[in-house]
Design goal:
The protein has about 300 residues and is mainly β. Helix content is about 5%, strand content about 45%.
Length: about 300
């Protein structure tokens, strides 16, 4: 039971804090692959023949799950789904993506999650003694490292953040989670997430209280993430996703909020903080799991999803 719904009488012992959520299940062990051909035909069974025409296509960069391999006429074919096969010569098998060690932050109460909060997006980032890149490099930060945003200054049109005493970083390389006012259409006790497309971050709220923040990867310019306020219409612990040029199985912790747009796990990359998707909101497996299990208490139409450009 959440403390917001417990009446505490004078002199009574406060209720104990809720236990931390259990860890998410281990990632699936199926092999993944990336399409290397400009166009790769998908067939209903392995092999090329007149009675086995293409039933779909994939394109360079698309990610697939490899469930089985089979030799036909001396060539290896991969099964990437039910009755969906591709030639192995055009799929590069990849190692599982390294998941960000510090791409999320949770709070047990409103005071514990201090926003704004940022993450280093590139592989590395220098911190300087002065904003604007002047002065010596005083610190080097790594990918997904969490930083406090204590002060902001603009130098030559570029925003710089002070992350500690005498340490300034280029704001273009930091994804920042900021507080967002609750829209009037969202209830005072509802569970909702604010997806900030300009910063590529997500903040989970219960009413006006921020509880969790994470980096995300939204839609690319050609396939942008839809903006507005939406209520989740379908929740799936795992499922398939497909569209023009891609086919994915075992996509976990999915909350569809508008048509085919969803919050979901992206197990195939660790490039959060930059637009990357076909329109969905990509999250690391742990972050997607956290939002999914936390929002379950709000019912089948939870969470409310507010997507905006700040």
């Amino acid at each position: 039971m959440h403390s917001a719904y417990v009446r505490v009488t004078p002199g009574a012992e406060p209720p104990p804090p809720p236990p931390p959520p259990p860890p998410p299940p281990p990632p699936a062990e199926e092999r993944r692959g990336v399409v290397t051909a400009t166009v790769l035909n998908v067939r209903a069974r392995p092999g090329v023949s007149a009675d086995n025409p293409p039933i779909g296509v994939l394109r360079a960069g698309d990610v697939v799950t490899i469930y089985e391999e089979r030799a036909v006429a001396g060539e290896i074919w991969y099964r990437i789904g039910d009755n969906r096969w591709v030639h192995s010569a055009y799929v590069r098998v990849t190692a599982p993506a390294a998941q960000p060690a510090s791409a999320s932050a949770a709070a047990a109460d409103a005071a514990a999650l201090q926003l704004p909060l940022g993450w280093v997006v590139p592989t590395s980032l220098n911190a300087y003694a002065q904003p604007g890149g002047s002065g010596p490099v005083v610190r080097r930060l790594g990918h997904n490292e969490v930083v406090s945003v204590l002060e902001t200054r603009t130098v030559a049109g570029v925003r710089w953040y002070r992350i500690a005493a005498g340490q300034w970083v280029d704001g273009r390389s930091v994804g920042v989670a900021r507080l967002k006012a609750r829209p009037a259409s969202i209830g005072a006790r509802e569970r909702w997430v604010g997806v900030n497309l300009s910063e590529q971050t997500l903040v989970a709220y219960e009413g006006d209280r921020p509880l969790y923040a994470a980096l995300i990867a939204s839609g690319l310019p050609g396939t942008p993430t839809v903006q507005g306020i939406f209520r989740t219409w379908l929740r799936l612990t795992t499922g398939k996703m497909s569209g023009p040029g891609y086919y994915l199985e075992d996509v976990t912790w999915t909350c569809y909020f508008y048509s085919g747009y969803a919050l979901h796990t992206a197990y195939w990359h660790d490039a959060f903080g930059r637009p990357r998707s076909h329109g969905c909101v990509n999250m690391s497996p742990y972050d997607a799991w956290w939002v999914y299990q936390w929002s379950a208490a709000g019912g089948p139409n939870s969470p409310v999803v507010y997507v905006y450009w700040a």
